[in-house]
């Protein structure tokens, strides 16, 4: 890349609007009922370490503090790797889950194999398409809804895109755990397969379960049948308020060997 093109590229990045799509993590946050809770402990206090570091750096008053976090990789805003979901014991491509798993994780198809994701992203704002603030509880987004939203937004989905599905339920993440976990709207498995047929690479949702009425069937459609990564519990409200239907999604999964997923903090970039 020439100097002029590099400068132009840097200018485009530094002048872009940056949208933080991640949700916070905290003690007591809503997680799937079958998953372990998210727990954060202050493991080392400043006053506890001051004497220790006084012997290392006398006179500086140096101390530190750090925490211990216990969680699964599927709390809050997170990415599902291909080893996360199986169907009849088989992962994507017919790989036997039992043959690549052990007590320390997976030898293949785990999250450390996923490169940094930089994708053209299309926001499907279904509440706006339906003319409501939030989709009705347990509403099932259909393939017809997908095509209707695309037409209303005057956008298309290209091969390799990420798709951001807004239902409006991200507002309950920090305010109403019961509503967030049990009263959401989402996509059907037929809708997942409809998106998969467009050859997308990442499917994203603003709630935890993503699928209605059968969340696991939707997961199988994306992960097992089509090898499409899933990112859940995104905050898409600012993108929707600004009517940003096409953006650049950037996601950096943690390189945890053998893990079935990763906590992530995605961002979206859009022209200013």
How would you summarize what this structure contains?
This protein has 272 residues and is α/β, with parallel strands linked by helices. Helices cover 27% and strands 22% of the residues. The chain has helices at 3-14, 46-56, 97-100, 126-130, 143-153, 177-182, 189-196, 215-226, 237-241; strands spanning 17-20, 39-44, 66-70, 78-80, 101-102, 105-106, 117-125, 140-141, 162-166, 186-187, 202-205, 229-232, 246-251, 261-263, 267-270.
Q: Topology, please?
A:
Elements: H1 3-14, E1 17-20, E2 39-44, H2 46-56, E3 66-70, E4 78-80, H3 97-100, E5 101-102, E6 105-106, E7 117-125, H4 126-130, E8 140-141, H5 143-153, E9 162-166, H6 177-182, E10 186-187, H7 189-196, E11 202-205, H8 215-226, E12 229-232, H9 237-241, E13 246-251, E14 261-263, E15 267-270
Parallel strand pairs: 7-9, 8-10, 9-11, 11-12
Antiparallel strand pairs: 1-15, 2-3, 4-12, 4-14, 5-6, 7-13, 13-15
Helix pairs in contact: 7-8
Q: What's the CATH topology name of the largest domain?
A: Glucose Oxidase, domain 1
Question: What separation lies between the terminal Cα atoms?
Answer: 24 Å
Summarize the helix and strand pattern as letters.
Answer: HEEHEEHEEEHEHEHEHEHEHEEE
Instruction: Specify Rg, calculated over alpha carbons.
Output: 21 Å
CATH class of the largest domain, please?
Alpha Beta
Net shape:
globular
> Which architecture of the largest domain would the CATH scheme give at its second level?
3-Layer(bba) Sandwich
Number of strands: 15
Which sheet architecture does the biggest sheet show?
9 strands, mixed
* Count of alpha and pi helical runs: 9
User: Helix fraction?
Assistant: 25-40%
The CATH homologous superfamily name of the largest domain equals Putative cyclase
Structural class determined from secondary elements: alpha/beta
As for the number of domains, it is 2
Provide the low-confidence segments as ranges. none
How large a portion of the residues is in β-strands, by DSSP E? 15-25%
Biggest β-sheet: strands ordered side by side in the sheet? 1-15-13-7-9-11-12-4-14
Average pLDDT taken over every residue: 95
């Amino acid at each position: 890349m020439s100097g002029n093109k590099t400068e132009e590229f840097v200018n485009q990045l530094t002048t872009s609007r940056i949208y933080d799509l991640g949700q916070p993590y905290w003690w007591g946050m809503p997680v799937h009922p079958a998953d372990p809770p998210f727990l954060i402990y202050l493991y080392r206090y400043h006053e506890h370490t001051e004497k220790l570091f006084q012997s290392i750096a006398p006179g500086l008053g140096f101390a530190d503090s750090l925490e211990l976090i216990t969680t699964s990789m599927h709390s809050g805003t997170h990415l599902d790797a291909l080893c996360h979901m199986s169907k009849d014991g088989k992962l994507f491509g017919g790989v036997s889950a039992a043959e690549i798993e052990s007590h320390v994780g997976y030898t293949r198809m785990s999250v450390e194999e996923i490169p940094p994701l930089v994708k053209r992203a299309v926001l499907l704002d279904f509440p706006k398409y339906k003319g409501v603030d939030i989709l009705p509880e347990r509403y099932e987004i259909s393939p017809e809804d997908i095509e209707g939203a695309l037409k209303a937004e005057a956008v298309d989905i290209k091969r390799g895109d990420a798709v951001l599905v807004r239902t409006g339920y991200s507002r309950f993440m920090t305010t109403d755990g019961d509503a967030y976990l049990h009263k959401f709207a989402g996509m059907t498995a037929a809708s997942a397969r409809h998106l998969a047929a467009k050859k997308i690479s990442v499917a994203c949702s603003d709630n935890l379960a993503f699928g209605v009425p059968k969340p696991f069937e939707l997961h199988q459609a994306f992960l097992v049948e089509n090898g499409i990564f899933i990112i859940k519990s995104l905050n898409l409200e600012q993108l929707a308020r600004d009517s940003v239907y096409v953006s650049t999604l950037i996601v950096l999964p943690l390189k945890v060997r053998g893990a079935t997923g990763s906590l992530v903090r995605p961002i979206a970039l859009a022209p200013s």
